[in-house]
Amino acid sequence: MNVREIPRRDMNEVLQDPWVDTGRRPWISGDIAYVPVRDGYPYTMALKERRRKGRGYQKIGSVIAFHGEKPDWDVVSEVIDRHKPEAVIWYRGHRGEMRIPEITVLYGEVSDTMHKESGIIYHLNPAVVMFSQGNREEKRRIAGLVKPGERICDMFAGIGYFSLPMAKAGGHVHAIEINPDAVYFLQKNILANNLGSRVMVSPGDCRDHITGIYDRIHMGYYDAAKFLATALQHAGPGTMIHVHGIGDNTGEIKEQLDMAGVLAVMNQRIIKKIGPGKVHTVTDLVIK
Ligand code: SAM
Q1: 19-30: per-residue pLDDT in tens?
Q2: Spacing, Cα 224 to ligand 1 middle (Å)
Q3: What total of structural domains would you count in the chain?
């Protein structure tokens, strides 16, 4: 696709000009407007037409978020026309233990948004806290396992992605989260879903706040196996522990169980693909 780069302030004036390709949407980045040009007219930049494999994006409230390779403008403009989002972002990755999103804003302005999933309201700002795309089925599965009145610890609660479905299913959830920004949205989401009597929040490191014995411990963090020794100190016979990870980490889990002198029935499942040859797994442990 060919475009002309013109100052943003001049964009509206030129849109009626004969060279403008009205079948495509112009876009703005900073002070520059990129206006698609019809064939046969001079242009300042030629963009390669790359087709993306699959959809490659998700709707998070009023924000469209692309994962994987950076989308071309014609892909972005298609989703803008289709979904009329407030913003379009491209997730380049997540950094550090708090999984802070690293994003590029491709269109609009990113702010707090509200996302509804399986009847639960999640307030979040996708530029500030991660949104666990692709865990929808797993959230449903875990909520389906919860027995009313269970005492549950969600050691890496985030904004309540799993805490809220487990609480809504009747569990009493102790949600622990180290990232203050995530804690802000977690508390907002508990109120938004009227789950204040079912979820207790501990801001901070799960190793400092986990307490007592739980019926269920959810460890939604790829490095969860490193925290398993802590979790095992708060598990008794029959406690179920859900250990997330990347690929087959059952060796590391077995090591932790052996060091703690704990026997458990172990069952690992794949939740989703997270990259070439990489899968997000969860290993269910039932403590004997
Ligand atoms: N459980 C949510 C989910 O599955 O979608 C959030 C997962 S996110 C990958 C992991 C969360 O754990 C992040 O919000 C991060 O800030 C938090 N976290 C990392 N280390 C932690 C620790 N030691 N104690 C408590 N929270 C921690």
Answers
A1: 998 877 787 777
A2: 9
A3: 2
